[in-house]
Amino acid sequence: MIEFILNDKIIKTEKHNAMVLLDFIRNEQNLKGTKSGCKEGDCGACTVLEGTYKNGEMVYKTIVSCLTPLANAEGKHIVTIEGLNQNELTPIQKAFVDQAATQCGFCTPGFIVSFSNFALSDIKPIKSEAINSVAGNICRCTGYKSIEKAAEDISNNLKTRDLNNKIDWLIQNKYVPEYFKNIPEKIKNLKIYDSNIENKSIIAGGTDLYVQKPEKMLESEHTFISKQSNFKTIEQFGNICEIGAAVTISELEESNILNKIFPDLKDYIKLISSLQIRNMATLAGNFVNASPIGDLTIFFLALNSKLHIVSDKNIKREIYLKDFFEDYKKVDLNNGEIIEKLSFEIPSENHLFNFEKISKRTHLDIASVNSAISLSVDNEAITKVYLSAGGLAAIPKYFEKTCEFLKDKKISSQNIKNAAKIAVDEVSPISDIRGSKEYKLLLFRQLIYAHFIKLFPEKISINKLSEID
Amino acid sequence: MKNIDSKGHVKGESIYIDDISTQTGTLFGYVFDSPIAKGIIKNLDYADAEQLEGVVHIFTHKDIPGDNQIGAIIRDEPLLAENELHYIGQPIAFIVAETESIAKAAKKLIKLEFDEKPAITDVVEAKEKKHFIIPPRTFKLGDVETAFKKCDYVFEGEASSGGQEHLYLETQAAYSTPAENDCIKISSSTQGPASVQKAVAEILKLPMHKIEVDVIRLGGAFGGKEDQATAWAAMCALATYHLKKAVKISLHRLDDIRMTGKRHPYKSFFKIGLSKDLKIIAYEVDFLQNAGAAADLSPAILERTLFHTTNSYFVPNVRSTAYSCKTNLPPNTAFRGFGGPQAMFVIESAIAKAAYELNVDISDIQKNNLIVDNNEFLYGQIAQNSLALKSWQCVENQFNINDNFKKVDDFNSKNINHKKGISFMPICFGISFTNTPMNHANALVHIYQDGSIGVSTGAIEMGQGVNTKMLQVAANVFSIDKNKVKLETTNTTRVANSSPTAASSTADLNGKALLKACNKLLIRLKQTASEILNTDFEKINLKNEFAYIDSKKSNLGWNELVKSAFLKRVNLSESAYYATPKIHFDKSKEKGHPFAYHVYGTAITTVTIDCIRGIYDIDSVKIIHDFGKSMNEILDKGQVEGAVVQGIGWITMEELKYDEKGRNLSNALSSYKIPDIYSVPKVIDIKPVETEGEDMAIFKSKAVGEPPFMYGIGTYFAIQKAVKAFNPNYKANFDAPFTPEKVLLGLYNK
After folding, report:
1. Which of A30, B107, B133, B406 would you call most buried, defined as having the most Cβ atoms within 10 angstroms of its Cβ?
2. What top-level class would CATH report for the domain A233-469?
């Protein structure tokens, strides 16, 4: 049995907990406003709101219902376009009509839901942030310019939003219907049913599994662990940072601890999938999925991170992330074991970090090559360095030899050129849809250059790197 | 006026095929398709699949009572494969089950044995083997051979442009229901309801009047549902015919991308000759169109490629030959621009090549050769009211072009990590179906006794706002509030034999038919008013829902007038037919006057590339566009913006890749990327060129659907110029799309 609130209605369903929310909404509840565009989380047409009761209030975020198992809706408030509709158009809907931001209309409900979440959030009401809120929504008709204008109207209208009485203000101004007021009361009464972990596959966000084998998911029983609170914390113990396995990418992005360590964190995260997926996909999911191009994996590889693994018999072990990947999609994880958390040593003051990702489309795309570097410099020489890159081998790659070479070297164009040569020699990528072998190798060299140009703009420039040969 | 569908759209209340309330007992269809690109079926065993609980029936070509054929131009495409397989994704069987998931499970139980044969995916190979859909066609003007001898400069080269997935957000879908007396009603996501009706009637060996096709709206189409919506409707209808049950299909995105055709990839070989003063004297080109495995609309698309050989330039000596090459890809099909963009990319490449070799700016050649009045197009039509030069000059003046060029040079001399490029892109696009008989439309208008109006036309609403324009026509003729007019669904029982919504012409054709119908009704209503008001017919005018005698308002309001007409037994319904006058084309000579008019315009595009990473941003696209006298500025501007971005997508990031076995590697939204909100130009500035408009267009408001797509081509050359600015050794080639991969390789090739 799964209980949740769908719009203003309490749902109690015996449906398979792996059924996707989109199918439940459209087929079981006959709510046809949520559209099915791609069933792989890449278009945002099926976007709905997921509300969680937290510290006395509801916190909403957008998710793609096509990749959400029913189990992950448990105890939540799910809102579809129908749950936002009122007699009059909401200010968001009105902005869309006014700016002709809808043509064929098929993607539109998804955009309206995403913008409504922007209104429900505490994010500063400015145009660029409003645009960020729909970055996971694809439109094929408008060319987005009219949607940008709507985003401007929407953020202007929200300028007077009262964050202290947010829901009241939003109800008063017709952004959301009145029933939103009563959701916290209702949601507290939902029953959460225990799930038994034994002999079932364990699934976190499921954002890749539901792309790869949606039908298979209904053929067996699973345990969904996204909500387990013991895997959801980001903590600092002295100079060690620990991140729970079920922390989502969005939660990483919002973490004060991580933002302090990585001042450019928000820029990096923006390159990873879409907002909706970031709200769903988890840290450990990215590791276990073992994609050679996993963005988070590459990020944490360059921090020399450790995984903390626990078995069903409560036996614990630790393994370096770089040793976790054995072969293509093969990881060092035994039956009954799960990743509990990740930890890494917080680098000292004179530490530098950079993450680069290049894909055919800069946002909401899979990398051709991604790379991260973490290094400490003392007296112009590199004292500590970790370099990782994806898309170049069967596994997310840590560059042992290159790091060895760079250690104790001075930051000079010649050293970086040599390091890049060594790095390129460490891999032999294959040509595929993400790029030819020739391209990937050139791009990897360039990303190594980019790391140093970005971190040492006074010392390193592209023309200096191009000059020496 | 805003799109009349907007309110329904923003509330998620607009209905697409998959949202239609289904009848109890509706069954679901799923297609079993070819896993190989070429081969012979040895055995098809679906006994196990049919045994699966919930499977109702599995249909093959043997169940087709009529012609197993959906080819509209050439009868070369079976609905369901018989013996031969020609592409991956070719439908073989249609599984019908109680639920979609049962049908999907059944698919896995079907066993197909086949003899696989080597597939052809490359156009050059297909041409060498003479695998053609139709014999090659050649358009000629002047005498190229003699002319090339007189040229001061001659350059040769090749240009390739890639395919493009339509990626309409609503996938292909159809819902067919049984009606009494063996009739079938089909709701289809099609641009061509009459084509669906005709194909289904032939497949089922039924007269057309037994098949009713109804279309509410499409969730995007862009040409992808002009011909290729037919198969799915036909399969559902076939199942309904046999089972007497409602049957629905709504393709999964992956199935849609795998099974449907796309924009045609082209490979072309050009030769361009210029005089010392940069006049193009001669141009020769061979177009190799990758048609895929069946004709579909390829012959018509090939024809439009020929028509647009020289874009908006006058070239006195031209020889243009086009080959429609048969390969083992899904049959490629219509896509916004319909072969025009492919042709224009080649002449722009030829001009760029000449400019690079001569070390002049591309625009020096472009501007010097724009077509002016009384110049002859290579197909014999004489340019009239050409706005090629005027739109170019407007761009120069209104967007301060000299300054922009200087800024780009300054930027490039000061920056190393980034370079900018700037390019012009003029366009000239002919409006009309190039197949003259298709240029017609019908409209049906009912004025109900309460004064409200229902309008039916053959136009399909697919986001472009054609229904809104139709509503404007009716409301304008009667001078009544727009809320009094309702646009009905597009339905073959109300408007028969319609042409598909395509060729940018739909508002013109249907609008003109509707205008005629409304005018006929207007005359009758004015007659009635003159009788009621006891005055001369000539003195009566209808304005703002009142009858006026000369310029004096009477007491006779619209509703009362209509009611009186009804009681006086005046016919309040009218239909009218419109066929575009003046146009003709003689295919035996490849000469004529095929277009009602041309749409002109010029765009200027500026890009910035990141020379470390090979990625790029489009800073701006500024456009002077020939709208005629736009009847709906907000809709028309939306069409330009959407088309430009789609064109930029085609020329930059949208890359279709097939392996040697004909398998589409870019088979999902995760591997085929279309523009997102971050990747579009930061600025798109669109201004109208001042013009009197065009009488052949509805309310002088020119067609707008396709022409602006081709502004996107300018982005290719802006990127290329930026790459050249970084890498003096860069060897310019013309191979769209210009992906970040090609940019980076270009930046560092030696």
Report:
1. B133
2. alpha beta
The helix-helix angle for B298-307 and B340-358 (nearest 10°) equals: 40
Q: Which of B168, B679, B744 sits opposite A140 (nearest CB)?
A: B168
What is the domain partition of chain B in residue ranges? 6-118+172-250, 266-434+588-748, 440-579
Taking alpha carbons only, the member of A429, A269, A469, A445 closest to residue B612 is: A445
Q: Which helix (H) or strand (E) holds A365?
A: none
Question: Which of A104, A431, A458 would you mutate first to test chain B, the one with the most B CBs within 10 A?
Answer: A104
Among the listed residues B77, B170, B396, B706, the single catalytic one is B706
Tell whether B77 lies on the interface with A, counting CB pairs under 8 A. no
Task: Kindly tell me if the per-residue pLDDT of A430 is higher than 60.
Answer: yes
E-strand ranges in A366-469 read 369-378, 381-390, 397-398
Tell me the CATH number for domain A1-195: 3.10.20.30
Q: Does B645 touch chain A (CB under 8 A)?
A: yes
Q: What are the tens digits of pLDDT across the range A364-413? A: 999 999 999 999 999 889 999 999 999 999 999 999 999 999 999 999 99
CATH annotation of B266-434+588-748: 3.30.365.10
- Domain B440-579: give its CATH code: 3.30.365.10
* pLDDT at position B156: 98
- Give the length of chain A: 469
Q: Say yes or no for a CB contact (<8 Å) between A442 and B744.
A: yes
A106–B220: do the CB atoms touch at under 8 Å? yes
Q: What does the block give as tokens for B599?
A: 């749409």
Residue of B642, B674, B679 with shortest CB distance to A103: B642
Q: Give the closest of B169, B250, B675 to A104, CB-based.
A: B169
What average pLDDT does this structure show over B61-72? 97
Above pLDDT 70, what percent of chain B?
100
- Measured N-to-C along each axis, helices B401-414 and B388-398 cross at an angle, to the nearest 10 degrees, of 60
**Which residues from chain B sit within 8 angstroms of residue A364, using beta carbons?**
676
- Domains A1-195 and A233-469 agree in fold: no
**CATH topology match: B6-118+172-250 vs B266-434+588-748:** no
CATH class of B6-118+172-250: alpha beta
B612 contacts A450? CB cut-off 8 A: yes
Determine phi and psi for B136, rounding to 5 degrees.
-60, 150
Contact indicator for B603, B312 with CB cutoff of 8 Å: no
Q: Distance from A82 to chain B by nearest Cα, in Å? A: 7
Residue A144 has pLDDT above 60, yes or no: yes
pLDDT band at A197 (very low <50, low <70, confident <90, very high): low
Question: If you measure CA to CA, which chain B residue comes closest to A356?
Answer: B613
B670 in contact with chain A, both atoms CB, cutoff 8 A? yes
Residue-wise burial string across B679-703, b where 16 or more C-beta atoms lie within 10 A, e elsewhere: bbbeebebbbbebebbebbbbbbbb
* Structure tokens given for B164: 């493009």
Percent of chain B clearing pLDDT 90 (strictly above): 100
B614 and chain A: CB distance < 8 Å anywhere?
yes
Q: Over range A338-347, report the average pLDDT.
A: 95
Residue of chain A whose alpha carbon sits nearest to that of B165: A140
pLDDT at residue B585 is higher than 80: yes
C-beta of residue B656 within 8 angstroms of C-beta of residue B720: no
This model of the complex carries an ipTM of: 0.98
Contact between A104 and B18 using a beta-carbon 8 Å cutoff: no
Q: Say yes or no for a CB contact (<8 Å) between B642 and A433.
A: no
Establish whether B706 is a catalytic residue: yes
Q: Distance between CA atoms of B312 and B321, rounded to whole angstroms?
A: 18
- Indicate if the pLDDT at residue A469 is higher than 60: no
Q: Is the pLDDT score of A427 beyond 90?
A: yes
Interface touch B679/A449, C-beta < 8 Å: no
Say whether A102 and B168 touch across the interface (CB within 8 A): no
Domain boundaries, chain A: 1-195, 233-469
